[in-house]
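Feature request, filed as a ticket because there's no other form

It would be nice if the structure record came with a short human-readable summary line next to the tokens. Right now we just get the raw output. Example of a typical job, pasted below so the devs can see what we mean:
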Amino acid sequence: MSDPLDPQQAKKNAALAFLQQNDLATARTLYAEVIAADPRDGKAHFMLGVIHARQGDLAAAETHLRLAVELEPALAAAWLNLGQVYELLRRYPEAESCLLKALELQADLLDARESLGRIHFATGRLAEAIERFREVVDRAPTRLPALSGLITSLHLTGQMTAAYQIGMQALSVAPDNAGILISLGQICRDVGSLKESLQYFRKVLQLVPGHPAALLGEAEVLERLGRPDEALARLQPLLPHADQNPDILILYAKIASRLGLDAGIIGRLEQALGLAGLNFRTREQIHYLLGELHDRAGRYDEAFAHYRSANTPAGSGPAPDPGQDPTDAIIASISATDFAALPRADRAELTPIFIVGMPRSGTSLVEQILASHPEVFGAGELNFTAMIAAELGYGRGAFTPDPAALRLLSRRYLDLITEHAGGA
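Raw output as currently delivered:
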């Protein structure tokens, strides 16, 4: 005849059953009773820490999970959950240390790799974030959170082709996932494929009417298409939140500037720079926009100060990973030898003159001087090349251009500038 079940074990079994039924309150009470009887039961501390974390009491979760790893230092799941609690508390160095310990004990913990990816992303270490998210996706190709993190990290580092490909992989897993559709819309927007971008944002709005990110995305594309009135109409439901959401405010400032409604917008943008938790890329955008607005108003010292701040991110947001500058990535992607070997368009033209330079470097002045000649037309800043290239598949397909596509691109570009120039 077998011995009766140990009362402590029986109580732990009951607590686990209640936890599996999502009865967190009863499970918490039972685990607390187990710990009261045996304060050195590390696994009970672990389970109680997990329950506190699920209930949102991160301080209590930290207390019990720390006791769990002290009492059961080989319990990988305890290190994992403690790391995730520190992640939620934004105590990233402690979180990273715990998660690495969890992987040291159990290398197949995908949750630990995914959490490390999120931490690297949050701290601006995008190359490491990509590496961690790829580790997860390679092992679990249908895991949406890792796919989403990988898409965003690739997008932010300018790796548009890879970001688009991973986005399509994620879409095959979840065709109606709003987050994936929005990411694809943003990628298409940024490579200039604006019609395709609109399709993704509008599909989200069909699935979730009034979805804020989709409304914002659609308004951004309409603004880029030169339809500011429509953009403002789409943005209207979000405007009450503009001063607390810098993305909405930035777009509103662009639209308002085009429609002559920008009174007071500089002050609102300046105020937005003081928002807590502003990430470095949003801060950079605000500084660039303020530089443009001050420049347009003839306040050149203020404009230059904002342009300089945009190029030297500082403040509460993490500094960008110096190894992940998109321009550096583009430069490194092709050598001078590779470039010389690329196919060329077969239409030789001397018509276009390209003036390239940094803001406030004199490009506008050079254009004005040249355009003073009666046979020269100053076209301003045009985005024809990016838009035509995107329509032909650049940014999503192979890097090596097709000669036929190049001929089409050059012909369309020259036709467009000829149309703009009139008789010049």
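Something like this underneath would help us a lot:
Residues 98 and 172 are 34 Å apart (CA to CA).
The mean pLDDT is 84.
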